Design the sequence.
């Protein structure tokens, strides 16, 4: 399935970094915190596919190519009492993808592996590198399918630092 989309978000949240004084050794103290900016616009193209090579194995995946535009200013007071306004207008093109594999094992056990990747992107304060992520999950329905026991391992290789 292929779809085009447009999304407008007001009060979009973005993490920013602000230098807030220096420590005893003269090293700058940097604070990272979320702020609500004015508006974020996102438009792009998304492609989804599902494939069942066997009755016991399901695959699905998607790829998303998109343009992101952020608009907004942020005003804060520094350690010396000065009011500082920063502009966070930013335009970037990036992409993301996901591939999920679900295997039905004997005994009613399901094994799911999901690989996700978010491409590199520019921000108003720099660049974020690409972010790979691998998750594993095992689950089993119990009590005549009225409950499920699951074991999840998120970010297997600790790659989303």
Sequence:
């Amino acid at each position: 399935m292929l779809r085009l989309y447009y999304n407008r978000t007001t009060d979009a949240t973005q993490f920013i970094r602000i230098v807030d004084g220096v420590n005893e050794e003269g090293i700058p103290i940097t604070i990272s915190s979320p702020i609500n900016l004015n508006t974020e616009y996102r438009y792009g193209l998304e492609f989804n596919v599902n494939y069942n090579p066997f009755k016991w194995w399901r695959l699905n995946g998607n790829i998303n190519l998109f343009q992101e535009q952020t608009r907004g200013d942020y005003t804060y007071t520094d350690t010396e009492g000065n009011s500082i306004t920063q502009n966070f207008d930013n335009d970037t093109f990036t992409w993301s993808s996901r591939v999920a594999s679900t295997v039905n094992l004997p005994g009613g056990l399901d094994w799911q592996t999901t690989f996700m990747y978010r491409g590199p992107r520019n921000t108003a304060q720099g660049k974020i590198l690409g972010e790979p992520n691998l998750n594993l999950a095992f689950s089993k329905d119990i009590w005549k399918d009225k409950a499920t026991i699951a074991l999840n391992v998120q970010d297997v290789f600790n790659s989303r630092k």
The chain has a mean pLDDT of 93. Residues 2-153 form one domain. DSSP finds no helices and 13 strands in the chain. The CA atoms of residues 119 and 151 lie 28 Å apart.
